[in-house]
Amino acid sequence: MPIRTYKIPLNSTLYARRIRFVCLILLLIGIVLRVVNLDRKVYWHDEVYTSMEVTANSRSELVADLFDGREVGVAELQEYQRMRPDRNLGEMLWRLGTEDVQHPPLFYVLTRYWSKLWGDSISTTRSMAVLLSFLAFPCIYWLCQELFASTIIGWIAIAIIAISPVHILYAQEAREYSLWSVTTLLSSIALLRAIRQPTWINWGWYSLSLVVGLYTFLISGVVALGHGLYVVLTDSRTVFSTNRFRLPRRTVAYLISFAIAILLLTPWLYFLIENFRTFQGSTSWTTVPLTYQQLLAAWLVNFSRILVDFDINSDSLFVADQWVVKGLMVLAIVLGLYALFYVWQRTQPAVWLFVWILAGSPVVLFILADLLVGGQRSASARYLIPGMLGVQLAIAYLVGDRLEQTKRRRQPIWQGVAIAIVVMGIGSGIALSSAETWWTKGVSYHHPQLAG
Fold first, then answer.
1. DSSP bridge pairs for 88
2. pLDDT of residue 4
3. In the chain, where are the structural domains located?
């Protein structure tokens, strides 16, 4: 079944140019929001570990040297976040693999060389994540071309992620999550291209994209499994032929690509197996159970953060205050859900199934895990980035299709929806870019108040 199934007819070239111009302005605004006040927010718990890992300073070394009962000054602590000439790349990889194995090395290697060029300040370390986040713009456009064959939808998708508060937040954080957005988009593009043009070279590119994703974040494996589900469900050839079990060629190509990616991940799997107890200890917080109400609140808040975020966390969602902001959150949730329905209603299965699977992985898996065995994996926004990208693709399709296809008397309604998305995104971006702390800072959220 072909992937390119729908293209928006442009009723007016001038109208299309205006849409692209507005999207370009929003892209520039999104870039500014990512770089402004980059060193203003608290450099939180996880980012400190990034600096230690990039500079090959180990946690065990810090504990042995400084936790001896004496008072420790700021300068002495910061020495463990500075580059040292006696620590090379190999030592950095070893320390990362033994003490923080849940975080594969690609982002940290890139940040190490970036810091060697420009210094190890907070702004420099975070700027690596910012620069990597820019790669998501051409990638989301390319993915829209593979899915919808529409330049307008591609531009709208760029605008949506440019001003999306969750993408702005993770672009300003010295962790691998902005790069994970890029690798998720790249592997999705590579898969659709390999399906559309099934050559071994294209499947090889898909395998390489999986390797890059897995060396960025291990949950990329769940995204890859979602890709596999998509391949199986959309393969038109029957599995059973002449009473014999036979895998379709496309499925075989996917399995080989996935197997090659896992094989190339073997060096990091060695660290994972050898230091599995460390891995369990570092991720044990994900198994701490939450009540059903807490989980529901976290799901709703995270879903709304795709379009709007004014630092409301799940604990305060059901408290009777900030009704305007919460009304905007409800609007964002309804719009996202309707967009998924609209894609299902208006596109062929090969299109809507991809969007739905991307939106559902790893969201559905983590929700099921939390409900069945307990935990809070599905409450962590950073674990749900692929799902957020899937919903944003659906929203881009909805807005682009309605702006171009709706009769003139109803166009003001959808123009109003587009304006609402812009206002929510830019308003959220201005608020979070100028703040000292935000919900992403976790255990370090209240550090500015403590310092004051």
1. none
2. 47
3. 1-39+137-175+290-452, 45-120, 177-282
Query: Is the Cβ–Cβ distance between 425 and 164 less than 8 Å?
Result: yes
Distance CA 174, CA 126 (A): 5
- The string of DSSP letters for 58-126 reads -HHHHHHHH-SSS---HHHHHGGGS--TT--HHHHHHHHHHH-TTS-SHHHHHHHHHHHHH-S-HHHHH
Cis omega (within 30 of 0) on the bond before 362? Answer: yes
Return the structure tokens found at 41: 């927010």
Q: Beta 244-245 vs 240-241: how paired, if at all?
A: antiparallel
Instruction: Taking the CA atoms of 287, 290, 292 and 294 in sequence, report the sign of the dihedral they define.
Output: negative
CA distances (Å), origin 188, targets 336, 376, 393, 428? 20, 27, 12, 28
Within 175-217, residue ranges assigned H as helices are 177-196, 200-214
Q: How many residues does the chain have?
A: 452
Whether 206 and 194 have beta carbons less than 8 Å apart is answered as yes
Mean pLDDT by 10 residues, the chain (452 residues): 45 78 97 94 92 88 77 79 88 94 97 94 95 98 95 96 97 97 98 95 98 98 97 72 67 96 97 95 94 95 96 84 92 98 96 97 95 95 97 97 73 90 97 92 80 52
Q: Is 250 helix (H, G, I), strand (E, B) or coil?
A: helix
The residue type of 68 is D
Helix ranges restricted to H, 315-384: 323-346, 349-360, 363-373
The residue among 165, 185, 167 whose CA lies nearest residue 332 is 165
11 DSSP 8-state letter: S
What stretches of 197-275 show up as alpha helix (H) in DSSP? 200-214, 220-234, 249-264, 266-274
CB 429 within 8 A of CB 28: no
Amino acid at 193: R
Which residues, other chains included, contact 204 with Cβ-Cβ below 8 Å and sequence gap of 6+? 257
| pTM for the structure as a whole | 0.93
The residues near 393 (Cβ < 8 Å, ≥ 6 apart) are 140, 143, 144, 147, 157, 343, 355, 358, 359
Q: Which two tokens stand for residue 381?
A: 């926004």
d(CA 21, CA 342): 26
- For residue 66, the model assigns a pLDDT of 77
